[in-house]
Every structure is written in structure tokens, then in C-alpha cells.
């Protein structure tokens, strides 16, 4: 058995306050709970170790001899004594953090390192809020456990890693998490995406779309070849929409469905999903090329980012496949522009492009503290959107919305068919204006999220 970690020179057992003994054996001080420690090490590293207890004095002397005073301080600061129910503080806190994220309805949890501490923040309704601040030692210990649970290498601190964790809470809750690590200045940053297992199936009827948009999406899901694009910024829900279309297609059966994603966010029974992996040269475009030799009916491209991917996706759509893809642009017009900038022939593109869906997830005013405001706060350039005498609302924040002024979110959509090489009129701004009038949307959120300053859209 090898005891050392070749990566950062810091052996793994140091984090547990144990030392190598003779042969396969490890040593631990008499005041530690050897059984709990053995279980924890099995939990984290997946290895059974043989622990021998020696007197505290002997252990301290041996520790100092090998690692010196500084490491000994490290060990004494680390508190992994078992709590009342026999679980170490590390395991308990790790569980509490994951349970807390699920209970808060968070979409993500972020670990951000400072010099001596890690700040844990949750993203709820699109906004980050701090939830915990942990001392460095404890933060490290929990990070190691999270990585081990996600089957990542716990001792690899220098390369980004990506994994998945199925978690079961003590109170019977469960959730799936996607875990990605990133080495940063003061420590390893971790981003945890909460994957909601209680959303067993994506359904078009659950997307709260206006009837005309839902009808358009269903017509795409009914089949037929061509390209369908969902656009919008990160977190606007475009992937969820495409998953709902895939689910409809899977439901109908009789279609071969292939997806290429970075990474695979939800496992869809009935589709063959491939994750992009740059380390082994598995890019969007190489996977797409391989797809064309697998006789698919439907292809889902997680995101079109480069010219090669755009070109293969177009070729697939031109040869009769239904290609669903997301594009990170603010408007449908910009999606067309982006694709031609990536090298696609505009006439070819328009000949197989069926429709573009543009969407936003807007934070809505807290109904408990919103109040009407006058128009002086509206910038001159945005005045075209506000009729004289039309009230606008903003929310100052109260206890119900945790002083944010926002409570909940509202999705708006613009579904544009491509007819005779033209996009039908956009309606995203109309939808936003409607929400302004009813007081659900603040001017700040309207200006922040909607493409009001694009010249193309002023005609609406
Ligand atoms: Zn409020």
C-alpha cells in the first residue's frame, strides 16, 4: 500500500490526523474514536484501513518527528470528534449543507475560498446568498468528502474535475448533485448544481407558456426535420424547454434520439446521451459527426459554440433530421447573426431553420412590499417603453422577501416561426411590458434582462 499523495506532497492521512505505522497499519492517538475514523476513511477514500491506537504522548512525539510542529497544530485545530449520533463533525456538516441547499430550493451551491476560510453561497431564484463561512481546515475536510462522494479523486487539487453525487439525507430526503471543481488562488473552488429528482419528467404543459408558444413547441415536438433553436442567457430555462420537447418525442416512441451535452444535466430514459470530454477529444463537433453515422431521427446539441458544430448541426438538419440546439444569444435576430458569423450560409440556414424560441426567467416584485413609483427613475433611452401615466412598480424589500424586493420568478417567451426566410415579429418585450403594467416586474429587472436597447426590437 502506498501512503503518500504524489500530487501536492501532502499525504491523505494527514487530513484525518493519523500516521502510517508498520506495513499496512496506521496509528492513531488513544483519545480518538478509531471505529468512527475507520468508517469515515472508508466513506471518503473507499479503503479499509487497520488502525492501531497508541498513547497520546507517543502519538504526539511520533507526529512531531515526522511532520514537525506546524502539522501538529494543524491536527489539533481540526475537530472531527464524533457528535452525539456517532458521526464526525465533517460528515454531519456536509449533510447539513446539502440538506440546506435542497430545503432552500437552491439551484446551485458555491464554495469560494478566501485566505483563511471558505464562503458557501446558495443560488436561490437566480440570486446568490451566503449561507455559511467555514474555517479552512473544516472546509478542506468537507471538500474532500464531497469529492470522494462524487467519485472524484480526493487528493487531486490541481486539475478541474467533474462528477455526480446521489445523496440520501438522514430524514429520508434525496437529491442528485453535479459537482465541478476548479483550482483557485486560495483553494479548490467547488460548484454544486442541485438536480431536482422530484422533477421526474419534463413536460411541456409544466413550462407555463402562453398558448401560442406552447402550440409552437408542440408542433416542433410532433416531429419533422429541420433546426429548432432555443436562445437566451444562462439560467433562462432554454435547456429545460428542449428537455421537455425531447420528453414528448420519447413518449411518442419510434424515434432514435441522440444528445451531446456539456455535461449531461438530466438523465433521460429513451435517449442516448453523450457528454463532451475535451480531455479525450470528445467535442461537440466530433460527437455530432459520429451521430450522423448512427442513423438518428432527433439530435439534441447542448450548445452551439463554434463554427464546426454549427456546420455539422446544419448538415444534419438539411438531411432531414430534427436538430434541437441552444444558442447563447439575447434575441432571435442575434442567433441568426451569430450563426452566419460562425460561417453558415444564410440561405441554407433559413431553408432548414423552423423556428427560434427566445426566453427569460425574470425575478418578480415581492407582492408584500411593492409600491408604485414615478417615471423619473427611467433612463431617457428606455422611455419609449413607458406610456404617459402608466404606473410602474418597485419593491423596497421586507421580511417576506428577505429584504431583496424580489419574490419568485416568471418565465416569458417569444416563439418565432421562420416563414419565407423571415422571422415572425418578436414579442419578448411585449411580454415584459405587460408584466411592468401589472406591477409584477420592476423597471430595473426589465432593463437588466430584456433586449430593449436592440434597434431591431423597437419596431414591436
Ligand atoms: Zn418584500
Entry summary:
The chain is α/β, with parallel strands linked by helices. It is built from 12 helices and 19 strands.
Task: Explain the overall architecture.
With 460 residues, this protein is an alpha/beta fold. The chain folds into three domains: 12-77, no CATH class; 89-195, Beta-Lactamase (2-Layer Sandwich); 204-459, P-loop containing nucleotide triphosphate hydrolases (Rossmann fold). It contains twelve helices and 19 strands. An eight-stranded mixed β-sheet has the order 12-11-13-14-10-15-18-19, sandwiched between helices. Strands 6-5-4-9-8-7 form a six-stranded antiparallel β-sheet, covered by helices on one side. Helix 5 (211-221) packs across helix 6 and helix 7 packs parallel to helix 8. The radius of gyration is 27 Å and the shape is globular. The termini are far apart. The model is unreliable at 1-8 and 70-86 (pLDDT under 50). The chain binds zinc ion. Zinc ion (ZN) is lined by residues 366, 368-369, 395, 397-398, 400-401. Zinc ion binds next to loops.
Please specify the SSE layout and strand pairing.
Elements: E1 19-20, E2 25-29, H1 34-45, E3 50-54, H2 56-77, H3 89-103, E4 108-113, E5 117-124, E6 127-135, H4 136-149, E7 162-168, E8 174-183, E9 188-195, H5 211-221, E10 226-231, H6 238-252, E11 257-261, E12 272-275, H7 284-292, E13 298-301, H8 307-318, E14 322-327, H9 332-341, H10 346-352, E15 353-365, E16 370-373, E17 392-395, E18 406-419, E19 422-423, H11 428-437, H12 443-449
Parallel strand pairs: 2-3, 10-14, 10-15, 11-12, 11-13, 13-14
Antiparallel strand pairs: 1-2, 4-5, 4-9, 5-6, 7-8, 8-9, 15-18, 16-17, 18-19
Helix pairs in contact: 3-4, 5-6, 7-8
The structure holds zinc ion.
Zinc ion is lined by residues 366, 368-369, 395, 397-398, 400-401.
